[in-house]
Each structure stands twice: as structure tokens, then as C-alpha cells.
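Structure first, sequence second, as always.
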């Protein structure tokens, strides 16, 4: 294994949870999540030697992951029907009530459009509006307006 491959594997280890979270937002079953994870990994590998570090590595990973998942949705011409909590999610969230709340939140988010899901995912990951704008190639103002609309939409959906 050469030095670049070792660096990539180390990089991938640092960002594997981020990649899985993005894939989880766009797929409903473990097989599809794993397929998307592989696609994202392949796209990261293809761009790894060209990544100059002009942006934050996490921003670059999010951009590649979100764009890969959105491309997959466009090419498959279908969206996920449900988002099930996996065993790994159960291991992350120990409290039963919190797990139920998270399950409900993901079910509501799953009903959003593709871009809305990407925006709310990044917001839930506590990315700044500037980072979200950079990742999704939107203006900062547009990000703020859209996130406020999405939050209102989710509140309305949860009340119904």
C-alpha cells in the first residue's frame, strides 16, 4: 500500500460517521446505505489527490456525500419510503424516549424534498449557515430562509 492510499484510509476513518449519516438520510435500508457509502467512498477517492485543502475537509466530505446521494436519487428516480433506525443508531442513542423522538424526526425529515433533507441534515449537524452554503453551493441568506421554512414545515407536519 502506498502513502497516498494510507493517507486516504486514515482520512476515511476520520469521516466514516459523517458519510454514514448522509447516506442514512437518503436511503431506507442497510443495503442501499452501504451501496451509497461505497459510492461516496469511491468519489472521495477519485477526488482525494485533487483536494487542495482550500476548504475544510469536513465541508469537502459533506459536499461529495450529499452530491453523490442526490445523484443517486436522480438516477434511481425514486426516494426512500421510510427511514428505519438501525442497530448502530440504537447503540448511539441509549434513552428509549430519545430514540423514539429521533425515529419520529427522521420519519418527518424523510418526507421532505431532496434539498430540504440536505439542508436540515447539515443544520442538525450544527454546521454554520456559511458552511452549509459552501457545501450546497447556495447563498447564506438562501440557507437561512430555507432552514426557517423547513423547521416550520416540520413543526406543522409533527402537529398533524
Amino acid at each position: 500500500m502506498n502513502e497516498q492510499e494510507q493517507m486516504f484510509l486514515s482520512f476515511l476513518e476520520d469521516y466514516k460517521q459523517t458519510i454514514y449519516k448522509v447516506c442514512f438520510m437518503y436511503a431506507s435500508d442497510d443495503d442501499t446505505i452501504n451501496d451509497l457509502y461505497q459510492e461516496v467512498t469511491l468519489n472521495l477517492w477519485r477526488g482525494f489527490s485533487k483536494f487542495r485543502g482550500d476548504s475544510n475537509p469536513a465541508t469537502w466530505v459533506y459536499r461529495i456525500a450529499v452530491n453523490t446521494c442526490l445523484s443517486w436519487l436522480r438516477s434511481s428516480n425514486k426516494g426512500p419510503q421510510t427511514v428505519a433506525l438501525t442497530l448502530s443508531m440504537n447503540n448511539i442513542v441509549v434513552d428509549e424516549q430519545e430514540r423514539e423522538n429521533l425515529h419520529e424526526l427522521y420519519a418527518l425529515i424523510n418526507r421532505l424534498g431532496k434539498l430540504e433533507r440536505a439542508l436540515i441534515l447539515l443544520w442538525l449537524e450544527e454546521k454554520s449557515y456559511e458552511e452549509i452554503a459552501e457545501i450546497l453551493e447556495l447563498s447564506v441568506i438562501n440557507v437561512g430562509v430555507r432552514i426557517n421554512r423547513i423547521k416550520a414545515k416540520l413543526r406543522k407536519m409533527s402537529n398533524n
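Margin note: The CA atoms of residues 133 and 143 lie 6 Å apart.
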